[in-house]
Amino acid sequence: MTRCAKLSGFVLACVLTCLSGCARKEPPTVRLQWTVMGTVAAVQCPSRSEAQRAKQICERIFSEQEEIFSVWREDSVISKVNRSAGGGVPLPVTGHFRKVLGCALEVHAKSDGAFNPLLAPLSKLWGFLGAKQISREPSQGAIDAALALTDCGDVQLDAAGCLLRKKGMTLDLGGIAKGYAVDVAYDALRGAGFSVFLIDLGGNIRVSGNPHSDQEGWRIGIRDPHSRHGVASVVCLNSGEATATSADYERFRIVDGKRYGHIVDARTGRPAQGRACTVKASSAMVADVLSTAVYVLDGRKSESLLKEYSATRLY
Ligand code: AMP
Ligand code: MG
């Protein structure tokens, strides 16, 4: 996967948030965007000066989070944990890392394994992580060997730090860390006195306050998975709420004429069959992790999982 391919989230982010700035009854908000974590980040505020200050704060926070969670950076905390796999000694980790991995492991258990933060060996096999391009489906033997490295029971997370017990085990928190970064930025902006704003990190969106006079909240357009520019539905977010979308149009591979999305079902070792899933929750981390999990899961199990976190599937 190249950084360029990861930027495909750009289109998604733009379509998702433009409605909040151009709905007829809404006063104009100013949207500023930049690239980070291999995707597009944006803030929206009622005035340009507020948006500029908010952007500065969010830029700093997203860069800090990237230093912890980027699997593309050799010096990130996650890369150090991955390199020490099988070494028998836990690596000290930050509070941010502990929170995100803790939540990932919890959702792994509650989703019957649909969400799995150890999927990287499978993502690599299917050509979604690392430089390898694939021209045919991986063999069942290769899938089984990669699956043997995805047992979350082999992750130790305690006061001493984090240890992956087997060599070759690799954490990838790409299905949850962007949502968490949005929550950290949300808390920082609220703490700095901002009351009306929207933060968007690659389609992980959280809003504060209400830019409307008619009390409807922020209006967010959900991209139609079947068309590049169409909007499938418009949702309303109230202050503090968050939404996240997982979709196969963000990143996919065509292998032997078949289309495979970048979300892998750890129970089979094969790309999951979903097309798009949008979840609303009370935090961006929960919306992010659940949108990925529900994308993989079948209907009944996803309903109970969403209920446990008081979250809703919007699309
Ligand atoms: P998202 O766009 O939030 O759904 O996250 C997708 C990213 O999460 C992928 O690019 C992988 O890094 C990672 N991922 C893929 N499949 C899974 C899975 N089943 N469980 C956890 N993370 C996954
Ligand atoms: Mg996610």
Walk me through what this model shows.
With 315 residues, the chain is an alpha+beta fold. Helices cover 37% and strands 23% of the residues. It is built from ten helices and 15 strands. It has a seven-stranded antiparallel beta sheet, sandwiched between helices. Strand 10 (252-255) and strand 11 (258-261) form a beta hairpin. Helix 3 packs across helix 8 (177-191), helix 5 (95-110) packs parallel to helix 9 and helix 8 packs antiparallel against helix 9. The radius of gyration is 19 Å and the shape is globular. The model is unreliable at 1-18 and 20-24 (pLDDT under 50). Bound molecules: adenosine monophosphate (AMP) and magnesium ion. Magnesium ion (MG) binds at residues 175-176, 244, 246, 288-289, 291-292.
Which consecutive residue ranges, at least 5 long each, have pLDDT under 50? 1-18, 20-24
What is the beta-strand fraction?
15-25%
Q: Give the mean pLDDT.
A: 88
Structural class based on helices, strands and sheet pairing: alpha+beta
Strand order of the largest sheet: 1-2-5-6-9-14-15
3D shape: globular
Bound molecules: adenosine monophosphate, magnesium ion
Strand element count:
15
Distance between the termini: 27 Å
Number of helices: 10
Order of helices and strands: HHEEHHHHHEEHEEEEEEEEEEHHE
What portion of residues is helical? 25-40%
Describe the largest sheet: 7 strands, antiparallel
Q: Gyration radius, to the nearest Å? A: 19 Å
Write a concise keyword list for the protein shown above.
315 residues; alpha+beta; seven-stranded antiparallel beta sheet; 10 helices; 37% helix; globular; disordered N terminus; binds adenosine monophosphate; binds magnesium ion
